[in-house]
Structures
1.
Amino acid sequence: MIKEFEYLAPKTLKEALKMLEEHADECKVICGGQSLLILMRQGLVTPAFIIDIKGCLSSLISRTAKTG
């Protein structure tokens, strides 16, 4: 069974970095995350926070593509 955790989904790189700073010792970062969920189900990893960077990376890539 997966231990309770808080899911965080920053929209910008700045938000992601702030969340990482605040929760550094008790978080895991995902960008998809299937492997992490398996480890969590097995009780091998028990983060208090999950930071999903997929949204901020998509935003960053989109912005970079527009500016060339």
2.
Amino acid sequence: MLFGQEIVASGTPSSIGGRDIGAVTVRFRLPEGVTVASLPVPAELSDGGHVEIHTEDEVRVLHDLTGWALDGGHSLQGLSVLRISLEDIYLGLTQGAASRWAEGSDTAEPGQGVGQ
């Protein structure tokens, strides 16, 4: 991945910035009559009655959560598992490169080569 004249990351799209091994967010609508405290894993109440669970061990969390839901007859409406997007990784990497340029540690302005 290039920003200006600097290589800011290399690898496959799925591995750049640790996307393949980083934390995930498990998200779903809190079932009616259930409190966040009664969930089998630590969670936070988010907007619109949704729950978010941030974890690096998504298989264990999903196992515990779905087992609990099946045993208790709870629906996990809107269940999703989200990884950081490639766009978020790109923005984070390029902001770091832009900051270094602004501090004067890079000699060429991003996007401007020698003689341009």
3.
Amino acid sequence: MISKEEHVAHWITQAEDDWEAVGILFQGRKYLQSLFFTHLVIEKLAKALWIKYNESNIPPKTHNAIYIISQTPVALDDKTNEFLLSLNRFKLKAVIRNISINCIKFATKNLQRVL
């Protein structure tokens, strides 16, 4: 049986791998894809936190990092919460509209600098 610590480590390792991809995509000027992977990194880290602070080792099946983190004792400041909300909006638009023009405008180099 896999321990809680191993579950947490799994999500963190996956996030680290995706973070490496963020850098490669960004350097290759693939800003939209870089932003998409950034969301994945944050989601996976949120799931690691969720597992750490909850009894179960299976996090919620959602991509909403704000919701996942809200199920932990971790408190987000307003700036971080707004940033995560922006990423959630981006992800939703990308999935629903199959990466619409609005998402491309959103995924600017300036937004990536925030990271």
